[in-house]
Specification:
With about 260 residues, the protein is an alpha/beta fold. It folds into two domains: about 170 residues, 3-Layer(aba) Sandwich (Rossmann fold); about 80 residues. Helix content is about 45%, strand content about 15%. The strands form three sheets. The protein has a six-stranded parallel β-sheet, with helices on both faces. Strands 2-3 form a two-stranded antiparallel sheet. The chain has a two-stranded antiparallel sheet with strand order 9-10. α11 links the parallel β7 and β8. The chain is globular, with a radius of gyration of 20 Å.
Length: about 260
């Protein structure tokens, strides 16, 4: 099955990156968010209201398999009582601060090495992510000099549909020009990522889970993936260098050398 895989799509949250608590960073994000909005509420009241509205938005989003744009998220769902012409232009910054209040998002230590190696081995790489941010993930890729390795970055906040619906997977495969049967998805949530990937007709689905979580919440039934890994570097054991066939002969991809086999 691996020999048929040409494209590898990866999730971001809890797959390529994790959230690390940083009390000062989170406190600053909360204060900056309140200042940007210009609220006169106490911090407790302000975030209590936002949390309630956030839960209502998530319920709507999950039920409709739809993601709002950043502007719609803030003007319609989270801060509808404030003038839209004031909040709308600030929606990108508000989204980043809303996410930052939960902690710093940092890449797993082996991510860059694995991305570079998979690209070297001849795989087309892309990102498929459910997220409310439109710019933070592309900015992270640029800052970490990873942008050129990803041929498609498909974010639910940009395309408006989300996993586990198949549409976001179809869009990603279309952007890189690959048949879905030759694509694999690497995610972290069996309840969402396995079903969605298979509905889309992807050839393989892999779930990254920490050993402790796997013991507590093992995938069952239709949520069992093809493979379970514990680190991004485990992907290098699954996907060897690809080959291409010309005139009946097998050649290594141009980016590969015999030492990578």
């Amino acid at each position: 099955m691996n020999a048929e895989i040409e494209a590898i799509f990866l999730d971001v949250g809890n797959t390529l990156r994790i959230v690390v608590e940083d009390e000062l960073f989170q406190a600053r994000a909360r204060l900056d968010l309140m200042k940007l909005v210009g609220t006169t509420d106490s911090q407790e009241l302000f975030f209590t209201k936002l949390d309630e509205r956030w839960k209502a938005y998530r319920k709507w989003s999950f039920a409709n398999l739809t993601e709002a744009s950043e502007q719609e998220l803030w003007t319609r769902f989270l801060l509808p009582e404030f003038p839209a012409d004031k909040i709308g232009p600030q929606s990108g910054r508000l989204t980043r601060l809303w996410r930052d209040k939960d902690g710093r998002r940092v890449p797993r230590p082996d991510v860059k090495k694995v991305v570079i190696e998979l690209d070297k081995r001849g795989y087309t790489l892309g990102i498929i992510a459910n997220t409310i941010t439109e710019t933070e993930i592309p900015d992270w890729l640029e800052n970490d000099q990873l942008t050129s390795y990803f041929k498609a970055v498909v974010l639910s906040s940009k395309v408006q549909y989300r996993k586990p619906g198949p549409e976001i997977y179809w869009e990603a495969a279309r952007r890189v020009g690959k048949d879905t049967s030759r694509c694999v998805y690497v995610g972290d949530n069996p309840n969402r990522d396995v079903v969605g990937t298979r509905k889309a007709g992807f050839g393989m689905v892999i779930i990254l889970m920490d050993p402790e979580k796997l013991v507590k919440e093992p995938p069952i039934g239709e949520n069992i993936p093809d493979r379970i890994i514990h680190e991004c570097s485990d992907l290098l054991e699954i996907f060897p260098p690809r080959t291409s066939r010309n005139n009946g002969q097998v050649h290594l991809c141009e980016s590969e050398s015999p030492t990578t086999q």
